[in-house]
Specification:
2 copies of one chain form a homodimer. The first copy, chain A, is α/β, with parallel strands linked by helices and 422 residues long. The first copy, chain A, has 12 helices and 18 strands. Chain A has 2 domains: 173 residues, Carbamate kinase (3-Layer(aba) Sandwich), CATH 3.40.1160; 146 residues, 2-Layer Sandwich (VC0802-like). Helix content of chain A is 35%, strand content 27%. In chain A, the strands form 4 sheets. Chain A has an 8-stranded mixed beta sheet with strand order 3-6-2-1-9-11-12-10, with helices on both faces. A 6-stranded antiparallel beta sheet of chain A has the order 14-15-13-16-18-17.
Chain lengths: 422, 422
């Protein structure tokens, strides 16, 4: 456990800490003063700090509203120029708040932070970071306040990074400046074994592996966007999800270490408002699946679970889950495909379902996990619809009306309310 | 007059025109739509256009107010980062408004425009412009919308350019991209022989020389800041002051040409709320003037007229004019100096005076100008206080209560309401 000791926040002297504050945390001048006070405290404890901040909540929406009043289809290039001003205002104001309490600070735009991006406007991807200026200002012992969510292309065009972009900025910067720890300060206390509003005895996790976090994120646990976690995993950036409202330790997200496998299930996530589409009567011939999946992809429908098998009549059937908002679009996309598949093909749909996912790397080395889960649901009288598994996840669909009961039953079955025994 | 024909707006085909719009012109989405429509019209007439825009009126003040709520003394570095977002929002919104009416547009920040600055934060000076990106986008036939009032230091720190900064941006860009004409669109129709609110028969000037414009600006005619005019003179940028509300031709500001000397007085400007400070009983010894002026400069008092002579008693006396708001500060600054000058020295002050300046390059080749002016004031029964002259200006102080009458008398004496005879 050397590893954990090395990266526990505040344990090391003169650690370099990146702290990310979201739009709510800097949503007013008073809240900015709170952020400044917290940054000062972290400094006073002997650390250097780089804050990554979002736009004040409401500012981005206000700017977008103006753009859409001018035209329903503003260009994404100009939207990036427009909305990136929100973060730029935040960094200046937080830096001023810091200076007003005697902390030498410097605001840093995405461009000044050397965040180079690629990809499309409004959803840029980080290509590279040139931390020269940040390192120079850190050497002068300044506290830095960096604009989240933004960067520039190598030719100097402004990009925003899309949803969750400020988390991504924080993690990427932590990597570039070799920070000792990266804290994502948010309105939750950390990552829980399940949503505490649904499972009252859910427990805050002290740590979770990148892969588990990714499975939780893609299964409806909306603490962070997947790509920030993927970026952190790729560059080995340990980060901590913790509350901006208190000083409780949060949840460390990091590469798995052997002791983590002792826990079979790390947590449970649920996703509501799912729908199922099943195409039946598909001739068992090459290219059919590709044709169906291609039509749904062309319609920009995100599929979640995908299951297919051969029925006793020799025809194949494919089932997919998706957000129920996409159901109509999926039916329309499949119509021309059905005609090609022949007269026996048809589409069945079901909405009002929800997905429950149990996630844990310990699953790889423990048997009987699925059996425990299915028995718990059966004992609670809950029918299981589709099942899909990955190496570290078992997901099932259930009637949406039973999803909370299902979550509690599975949480209890794996005793997730109790500290695991070492 | 080849010169004038070459640079008259709209006369040339495919001219490259820079148009500057102030904060009032882009003060609402509707006004931005008007600006976009005007830019489109200029384009439809066969020109390429680069718009330079300010922040929406009110936005800059709102941002400054937030900063000052955090602390009475926000750092100027952060103020620049903060307020430069105002222009950045304007350029994106105007570009969107252009695109919404079918004009291909691109917003350009000060940094993207390659505007490199030096000097202090909140009052940067333009060092150089690298127009590479602008030229590239113009070659793609885009209409450019450039953020006024901002630039970056060679190391990438954001600077704002201080008062009148957007005019300066427009003129500097016109120079850098070799524009055919630069139009400063404002809420006045052009430069007048005198303020039409005071002299109802004042006439709009078709042209004025840089030097005359500078003298007018420094004498209270607040159409433009002096440094924008100085920059234009230095780089030979011809610009036109015209109204953003109509299509009337405005006033061309340009290097003097021989025909301009036919006019003795181009215009009259007045400045109210002036005060006079006279130091009497100064020993006639070296260093005394420097001591007095140094004390006033240290107190950051802008002196306007400075007159000194030796009185019959052998002691020197110095008189200065300044804004009456500075009077108290000047008295305080002179107190310690008086003690050094000896027991005979004392300070006399007078407030409630105003300055009238008659400006014209024709003065250099015409005699009797001062005589005509003093006679006109005398005939009107107006006492003259201090007198100061430059090569192209005669300035006098009068009792502030008589300044409007004085302006009308001098305007009539030089027949400024009439077109000059060629």
């Amino acid at each position: 456990m050397d590893f954990l000791l090395n990266c526990a926040p505040f344990s090391a002297k003169m650690a370099l800490i990146v702290q990310k504050y979201g739009g709510t945390s800097v949503g007013s001048l008073d809240r900015m003063r709170n952020v400044a006070a917290r940054l000062k405290r972290t400094r006073d404890e002997g650390n250097q700090v780089v804050a990554v901040v979002s736009a004040m909540s409401g500012v981005t929406d206000g700017l977008l509203k103006m753009a859409h009043e001018l035209t329903p289809t503003p260009s994404e290039r100009e939207l990036d120029v427009l909305v990136s001003t929100g973060e730029q205002q935040s960094i200046a104001l937080v830096a001023i708040a810091l200076e007003s309490i005697g902390v030498e600070a410097a605001s840093i735009t995405g461009r000044q932070a050397g965040i180079f991006t690629t990809g499309s406007h409004t959803r840029g991807r980080i290509l590279d970071i040139d931390p020269t200026l940040m390192n120079q200002l850190l050497a002068e012992d300044k506290t830095l306040v960096v604009a989240g969510f933004q960067g520039v292309t190598p030719s100097g065009m402004i990009h925003t990074l899309g949803r969750g972009g400020s988390d991504l900025t924080a993690i990427a910067i932590a990597s570039a400046i070799k920070a000792d720890v990266c804290q994502i300060l948010t309105d939750v206390d950390g990552v829980y074994t399940c949503d505490p509003r649904i499972v009252p005895n859910a427990r805050k996790l002290p740590e979770i592996s990148y892969d588990e976090m990714l499975e939780m994120a893609s299964s409806g646990s909306k603490v962070m966007q997947s790509r920030s976690v993927e970026f952190a995993k790729k560059y080995g950036v340990i980060f901590e999800v913790r509350s901006s409202l208190n000083n409780n330790p949060g949840t460390l997200v990091l590469e798995e270490h052997p002791a983590m496998e002792n826990v079979v299930i790390r947590g449970i996530s649920i996703e509501r408002s799912q729908a199922r589409v099943t195409v039946i009567g598909i001739p068992d011939a090459p290219g059919m699946s590709g044709r169906i999946l291609g039509a749904l992809a062309d319609a920009e429908i995100n599929l979640d679970m995908i299951i297919s098998n051969i029925a006793s009549d020799g025809f194949a059937r494919h089932s997919f889950t998706m957000h129920s908002n996409d159901l109509g679009k999926a039916q329309a996309a499949l119509k021309p495909v059905l005609a090609e598949l022949g007269s026996g093909a048809k589409v069945e749909t079901e909405s009002g379902i929800a997905k429950l996912s149990a996630v844990g790397i310990g699953m790889r080395s423990h048997s009987g996990v699925a059996a425990t889960m299915f028995k718990a649901l059966g004992d609670a009288g809950i029918n299981i619809g589709m099942i899909s598994t990955s190496e570290i996840k078992i997901a099932v669909t259930v009637d949406e009306r039973h999803i909370e009961e299902a979550a509690r039953a599975v949480h209890d079955a794996f005793k997730l309310d109790q500290e695991p025994v070492a």
